[in-house]
Design a protein that fits this description.
With about 110 residues, the protein is mainly α. It has one domain. Helix content is about 65%, strand content about 0%. Helix 1 runs antiparallel to helix 2 and helix 1 runs parallel beside helix 3. The chain is globular, with a radius of gyration of 15 Å.
Length: about 110
């Protein structure tokens, strides 16, 4: 199976950067953040948790993880994660680790 790991790493980094920039803008008061939706009860799906562009970036990263898991399992996820960490550092890797938590029915646990 021929998987373009560098292309996946680039896409994941774009999602991380979008999420990071959105958080920075929110911290400066430039972005309105919806009230804590978790307090309203359980969210039936990850898709329903998307309330802004940061949530969209997080969901997209999770979908990539799910896809990698379905294609080749934990081994491919590890390969992509390691390449992502090597290219973008521990902080970005921590972000991805949390986005992938629960992928594949807990194949990946943060």
């Amino acid at each position: 199976m021929n998987i373009d790991t560098p292309a996946i790493v680039v896409r994941l980094f774009r999602l991380y950067e979008h999420s990071r920039l959105h958080r920075a803008a929110a911290a400066s008061g430039a972005v309105a953040i919806r009230a804590n939706i978790m307090g309203a009860g359980p969210i039936p799906s990850r898709l329903e948790a998307i309330t802004d562009s940061e949530g969209c970036a997080r969901y997209a990263a999770w979908v990539i993880g799910e896809t990698l898991c379905l294609v080749a399992g934990r081994e491919l996820m590890d390969q992509v994660f390691d390449a992502f960490e090597a290219a973008h550092g521990v902080r970005a890797a921590s972000w991805l680790d949390h986005r992938w938590s629960g992928v594949g029915g807990n194949v990946w646990c943060a």
